[in-house]
Amino acid sequence: MTKKGIILFVLLPIGFLFAQEQTTFLGIVIDAKTQNPLGNIVVNIQNSSITQLTNAKGKFELQAAVKGEQLLWIHSQGYKDFLLKIQSNPGQKVDLGILPLEDNFSDETPAALITLSDSELSEDNSSSEMTSGFLQSSKDAFMQASAFNWGQARFRVRGLDSENGTMMLNGTIMNKIYDGRPQWSNWGGLNNVLRNQEFSIGAAASNYTFGGILGTQQITTRASMYRKSSQMSLSGSNTTYNWRAITSYASGMSASGWAYVLSAGKRWSGEGYFEGTNFAAESFFVSIEKKLSGKHSLNFTGFYTPNSRGKNSAHTAEVTQLTNKKYNSYWGFQNGEKRNARVKRVEEPLFMLNHYYKINEKADLNSSVIYQLGQVGNSTIDYQNTSSPDPVYYQKLPSYYTSLYGKDKGEFSGDFTPDAVNAEQAKTKFTENQQINWEELYRANRKPTLNSDGIIEGYEPAQSHYVLYEDRTDDKTLAANSNLNIQITEHSTFDEGVTFRRLKSHQFQCLLDLLGGEYFEDIAPFYSGSQAQSDLQNPNRQVQKGDTYGYNYNLLATTIDAFTQFKFNYKKIDFYFGQSYSVSNYQREGLYQNGIYPASSLGKSKNVGFENFGFKGGLTYKISGKQWLFLNGMHLSRAPSLRNTFANSRLNNSVVDGIENENISSTEGNYVFRSPNFKIRSTVYYTLIKNTTRTSFFYAEGIFDKTAAYNNTDAFVSQTLTHLDKKNIGMEFSMEYQVSSTFKTTFCAAYGHYIYSSNPNVTITNDANVAKGSTSAVFDFGESYLKNYKQPGMPQQAFSVGLEYRDPKYWWLGVNINYLSENYIDVSPIARTNRFYKNPVNGLVFPEATEERAAVLLKQEKFDPISLLNIAGGKSWRLSHKYIGLFWSINNILDVSYKTGGYEQARNANFRALNQDVSSETPSFGPKYYYGYGRTYFVNLTISL
């Protein structure tokens, strides 16, 4: 089936290449300020592959086999896009005259204003993904508001994660196979050279791929597409980093057919907005093109952007009350300097070779090969046979003592027995010791040396009880891609593409620092005997710095994606339809024989395969030259991510039971009005995502029932949700009104309703049960009643009003007010199962578990709405053919404090435990929250030669 499907996609357009009478469009592109001609400017007939670059004198001569009214799109880095309506006249030459481009230094909004998605809300970088990174290329007012005004509050367009959009580099998909999301930090610091972008919203057609329901972002790094220039910029901020310096140079196309682009940059900070969040990053970029002939060109692109970032912790309301909203428990002082234990480090260089083949005036074939390798590490502290180093460990906080209850009285709850004395002592101790005590960890890893009199004269390294390690992912990805674009007739075009990707992802635990000790034992301290061994092939290992331990395996994946698309353009109606076909094959290869799963951990798992199809279509009705109606729809099936396919990949080869393809349907309708002074876009949309899978890990108390032959009611477990459906309905509205030649006002609104639309099945895996001799590790907890709960972690409603003044002397000032609401906490699925209400001791329903009390305990928390006032401005100068641009912004001027997200802790895994904790009014396992930035600033100075 796979071979037949690909052959069908590849051979389908062969019969469409034939000659046709053409129109020739002539013109000269100049700089609006200097009136000088501009070379290497991209001239394109919109929604087609017909493209040409201007020569050194700014001239172009574009031949196109089109009829009727079209849009000519002229764009280049450093200039505003220029759109011009053109009328074809087959067999004739149409002289468009002189076309001036205005520089965009005065309205450039640097991407650094966005907190990109790799600043995750959770350790697993899953549901916290933002889509702000997807929006930077769009000039649409709503998308600009989403990225730059609402992004700081973790707004997501249409409530969708970035896995629902397609990120592309020169026509090749860059979303990771592991989790379906782009690794935004791979592009960090390359702002100056990644501005050649195209963006399609929602299910709209893209020339490069079938796309996702969020849209498609295509970045082009072809060297000849860059105008000859050199640029330097220096930035200052108080968010993720404090300083940024970038320099870039583009040569333009030489007479010998060579062009190249270079860029280098650095970003750094000792501490970002939140305590202990250090940041360091560098960026290097090169693109070299050789024009082999009038039809063939080769382009090499390579970039390397190593970066590391200290993470910020989520906390309960109790911890925030004892500290402040900038508090971060992940760091502590060592030798007078702040050291963060949890650092995310990314080093993934990429190398790409593109072949551009202009078959004839009607057809282009672009092919590419990519190889990317490198590593992603997330560090934390491991410890054995000692106390937790976490300063906010629950037994170190006052709430541990103020939420105590006595033993149960038969089937009834015990008495409330708070310990005020110890609670006060815990408060005092925590106030004095709020951070990680690195010196204490080093002391614990050493033993005293005695002299002949038995007196301590020093200390020497011993077995480490604390170490710093990294959860490492070392990926090697090979990808090949080919895109064919054909102008079939004056009214129709055809696009097709095929992408092959192969991934080998080495996942392991790497010891970074023995913290003064001599060695660390590679065992699981909660188990005994052979079950404690990470690798039965090498038992009782003593590991050193740089060694692999704990878990060690490969994830192997091969995917093939293909699509075809037809587009038709007429005077009053445009329409398109497309289809996609993909296959995905996953496999786990265990490199350790785990002591708990000796028979299912070492070696390769079975192959897990998925086959998928997709269909999309759209219609545009041109009411007039100013008004359009758009209707787009899409239905596709999608393979689950590699991450969610294996239930507990760190320990064994088990595949999630009942896993299947996701099914996605989406429709949207748009009304657009555009005039020189007034623009409106109004959109309504409906999206349904079915059969998703989600895996998480946590320690739960009272989760198991002793009468059902479980060995212990408490356990560290993995939780897998299957058949989880999501429904997203809403509207988008944007308006721009040019009040005068200097004043412009904008209004944007997003009104969404995002819910879970099914009751997913919950499966719990308890490895300890196997270690204690039971044959069963996987337990079906039945349905979790999540239907109609709100999807968490984002405002579902957002509004923005802005006013902007642009002075004729090239300075500008803008202010906007934003209101965001309907943001909800992430709920615990296990607390919404029937088992939650049963006493783990006798298997009977808790007598106090009434519907009324359950409704109170399980009500989803809604965060307070927030209002944010932002202001930005800029000024540009031209001095002796040099541009100087200054941009500055202040976000959240009023320093409003607000929650951006949070989650319910799942440790209280039965009704009584949760009810007692909440009833104490000082819960020990209350929800944990993340907070947004307060008042922040950004300043950028750019010089372009």
Explain the overall architecture.
By secondary structure, the chain is mainly beta. 7% of the residues lie in helices and 47% in strands. The strands form 8 sheets. The chain has a 27-stranded antiparallel β-sheet that branches. A 4-stranded antiparallel β-sheet has the order 3-2-5-6, with no helix packed on it. The chain has a 4-stranded mixed β-sheet with strand order 9-8-11-10, with no helix packed on it. The chain is globular, with a radius of gyration of 30 Å.
Q: Evaluate the radius of gyration.
A: 30 Å
Shape: globular
* Count of strand segments: 47
**Intertermini distance:** 56 Å
Largest sheet: 27 strands, antiparallel
Share in β-strands? over 45%
Low-confidence stretches: 6-19, 106-138, 707-711
Strand-pairing-aware structural class: mainly beta
Average pLDDT value? 88
Query: Helical amount among residues, as a percent range?
Result: under 10%
> How large is the count of helical segments?
9
Features:
27-stranded antiparallel sheet; single chain; 7% helix; 945 residues; mainly beta; four-stranded antiparallel sheet
Put the structure in a nutshell.
The chain is mainly beta and 945 residues long.
Structural topology:
Blueprint: H1 2-11, E1 23-31, E2 42-45, E3 51-53, E4 59-64, E5 69-75, E6 82-87, E7 93-101, H2 141-149, E8 165-169, E9 172-173, E10 197-201, E11 215-219, E12 229-237, E13 243-250, E14 258-269, E15 279-291, E16 296-304, E17 307-310, E18 315-316, H3 317-322, E19 331-334, E20 337-340, E21 343-347, E22 350-360, E23 363-383, H4 399-402, H5 420-432, H6 438-444, E24 446-450, E25 456-461, E26 466-489, E27 492-513, E28 520-521, E29 542-543, E30 548-569, E31 573-590, E32 603-604, E33 608-622, E34 627-638, E35 662-674, E36 678-700, E37 715-738, E38 743-756, E39 761-765, H7 767-771, E40 778-783, E41 797-807, E42 811-821, H8 851-857, E43 866-879, E44 882-891, E45 899-903, H9 911-919, E46 928-931, E47 936-944
Parallel strand pairs: 1-7, 8-11
Antiparallel strand pairs: 1-4, 2-3, 2-5, 5-6, 8-9, 10-11, 12-13, 12-47, 13-14, 14-15, 15-16, 15-17, 16-22, 17-21, 18-46, 19-20, 21-23, 22-23, 23-26, 24-25, 26-27, 27-30, 28-29, 30-31, 31-32, 31-33, 33-34, 34-35, 35-36, 36-37, 37-38, 37-39, 38-41, 39-40, 41-42, 42-43, 43-44, 44-47, 45-46
